[in-house]
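Newbie here. two chains, one complex. Structure please?
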Amino acid sequence: MRVLTRAKLVAWLAALAALLLVVAVAGLGLGTSGLGPGEVIDALRGRGSDVAQDIVLRIRLPRVLLGGAVGASLAMAGVLFQALLRNPLADPFILGVSGGAALGGIAMLALGGALGLGYGAVPPAAFAGALGATALLYALAGARTRFSSTHLLLTGVVFNAFASAGIVFLASLAGFAEGASIFLWLIGSLASARLAVAGWVALFLVAGLACALPLARGLNALALGEEPALQLGVDVERTKRVILLSTSLMVGAAVSVAGLIGFVGLIIPHLLRLVLGPDHRLLIPAAALGGAAFLVACDTLARTLLEGRELPVGAVTALAGGPLFLVLLRRHALRGGLR
Amino acid sequence: MRLGGTPVLRGVSLAVGRGEVLGLVGRNGAGKTTLLRVATRVLEPDAGDVRVAGRPLSDFRRRELARALAVVPQETSVPFPFRVSEVVLMGRTPHLGAMAFESGADVSVAREAMAQVGVDHLADRSLLEISGGERQLVMVARALAQEPDVLLFDEPTAFLDLGHRVEVLARVRALAARGRSALVVSHDLGLAARFCDRLAILADGRVLADGPPAEVLTPARLREGFGVEADVMVGPDGAPVVVPRASQPGAC
């Protein structure tokens, strides 16, 4: 009988952290001017040539940190929404938080110029949109005495559809330059990386992790259903509310700076569940580390795949994640795991 | 007890003694599931109380209650491939702190629970891979791992074949013999009469009858409780056998 112990948990997380470290060093070294791992580590310690230090610390580090924070947030949000909705196909965007963020961000992109606001006003507007969507979701789905997962899901899906209509409307009002920005935002990009921005996303990531980890065992019980979880002594309503709010804020922060980077929140939880099993005590922190490594790797590819040009990272995650997901889905269906 | 303003249970008074198996029968909508929900505080009653070991339910904290009462649901599906051992260990949830890992003692409780219902050979299989009957036995093991005084079964055999029905109910019987109390909601009058010490018929939110199966199952009670014309015979083991008539009044 296999049992998850603290030692096993630590060993897996250490392995994933090592993977993340390797990917991060590669991400700091690779680019138009390639640096070896030794040069990267020297630069991080404040040694080596000024040029190398400049490239690593000022150009690439913010981007790797942002990629890590966004990837961790999205993958963890995937795990948490899947547990909350008891649906392995849920992703961080399913509850409409992304739709709210997109609407807020794109409204600012399309109309901000007329108000004299620059590009820097986009992330705060997007975050405001995410907050609005979360508040709406909470009010609508929580209006009854208890939260129904179906109700949450339907509210999110309808809100996303509504937000898409709003985005199309705004995009058709916008000029050519704004249109290109809107496109970049919809597919997701880490080009806006600055240290302060990465710190902002990391703040919500840490808060989300702190909220979710103590509820991990309750989320395991929730897999049996809400009533069985309640009968196991789990405070189901509180669990759902805390996860819904903290995760929505985490997704909102990530989306507001990086746009709608798809597949991270779907593929990483699935991949890790195949390897580590579904126990949320391990899966939640593992998804944070795995998601960070995946997105940093994808962003490194996005920066280096085309000579002198950059792909939006969302295109790379979709190109890598789409086929991978179909393969997983097929394996899953063959094993009778999906219903 | 009211649901959406409609009274569902009225003046129900039932007691299960230690080591006793009480069968709860009645037609659909009679209030059986509601009664179980009240008993586990999924729903709060408008009036009246439920006592476990003499203590009113409202005195219990939720986790504490989960250490006294365990429920085996009608059917279980999980969205993720949890292993049988992991599901049985979930029964330890009310005994463990939020961040704690299962100790050796928790693992041996789970191991023993699996051995008691005969699912120990399935420990490392995924809950999604095993049959419905095996899954139901795993849920009995999970309930046992809670180490409760009282076990509540909500139509535990509704989706099982005859062999698994008999197996699940025989396990319930054996658990009661070791001093646990059990309340079994069932639609299978024949099996309920065979495996329960007492039967109670619930009709329109009231207890219509409560007593030994042979006294409770009479044609008059079946007419009143289920709206069914039936004969009651005595089986070879002395337990009553209900034989519904082919022609029912009001049927076309």
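Moderator note: Residues 179 and 252 of chain A are 22 Å apart (CA to CA). Residues 6-334 of chain A form a domain with the ABC transporter involved in vitamin B12 uptake, BtuC fold (CATH 1.10.3470.10). Thread marked as resolved.
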